Amino acid sequence: MMHRFPIRIYYEDTDLAGIVYYANYLKFIERARSEWLRELGVDQSALQREGLVFAVRRVEADYLSPARFDDLLDVQSRLHGLSPARIVLDQAIARDGQLLFQARVTLACVGGAGRPARIPARVASLLRDADLAGI
């Protein structure tokens, strides 16, 4: 399944050299993940009230080419793997089809006191169904 999320680069996203500050790419892929889950029907606020959150456990990132002020970027997210307590996503950022950034992100489902928890069955089902449907 592939999810796409557009991001416009504003002046505040850039550094003194006029290119996107490296840490902002992590913010962009975070926003895209949140929108992906929302569009699948996963209510992260409801999960939080149940004492569950998705925490980033690992990020492997490659910065390939810089983005600049006023660029319109396409953040792409694709499910790579799903286990009882983890979601692994491949995420990429492109400008006009040119790959600028790519990352593999591992999310852990975490319960009270930061302990690992099982992803709720309804959430895992939404993720599997969307993946099978190619959404």
TrEMBL record:
Pfam families in the cross-refs: 4HBT_2
InterPro entries, per the entry: 4-hydroxybenzoyl-CoA_TE (IPR050563), HotDog_dom_sf (IPR029069), Tol-Pal_acyl-CoA_thioesterase (IPR014166), YbgC/YbaW (IPR006684)
SUPFAM superfamilies for the chain: Thioesterase/thiol ester dehydrase-isomerase (SSF54637)
Keywords: Hydrolase
Family: Belongs to the 4-hydroxybenzoyl-CoA thioesterase family.
Protein name as catalogued: Tol-pal system-associated acyl-CoA thioesterase
Gene name for this UniProt entry: ybgC
